[in-house]
Amino acid sequence: xxxxxxxxxxxxxxxxxxxxxxxxxxxxxxxxxxxxxxxxxxxxxxxxxxxxxxxxxxxxxxxxxxxxxxxxxxxxxxxxxxxxxxxxxxxxxxxxxxxxxxxxxxxxxxxxxxxxxxxxxxxxxxxxxxxxxxxxxxxxxxxxxxxxxxxxxxxxxxxxxxxxxxxxxxxxxxxxxxxxxxxxxxxxxxxxxxxxxxxxxxxx
Length: 204
Ligand SMILES: [Ca+2]
Known about the structure:
CATH topology of one domain: Jelly Rolls
Bound molecules: calcium ion
Strand content: 25-35%
């Protein structure tokens, strides 16, 4: 028996459910949340100014033999083999292009060399290429003859490798014309050969 009321109720329920569905579908979705990012500020480049290191003037090498206590020969191992830029260093060993005293361990030896030109200097270098360590004193001789002691130390064996003995000084008050090297040869066994002697002029 068709029950109009039941049919109407069922239809109403369907409409109700359908309405719920439509209502759910049509319900506006929540507004998207827009996160506003703070404006990116580009980093300010940091300019680091590195001070330009002072350009060191070129070395002045010795050019004349003023005094030598002894030399092994008049050519090979003579004092003039210590003139000019190094031509043994960085090699070492017993080399004819370096100065060697006559005897290996006879006495305190002296090697005084005139420079290629006079200059006020801030450092002196002695290239010891065989049995280093015997240099006990280095003096800078000024144009007036006055001497400045740039290095003084007790001689001691420093192995068999060649080495550069560099002594820094306050810029000399007068131009330097020569370098006098004292070698305590008896303190370091064997020939104590010197390849070159030079000075570093003061920087500007
Ligand atoms: Ca010696």
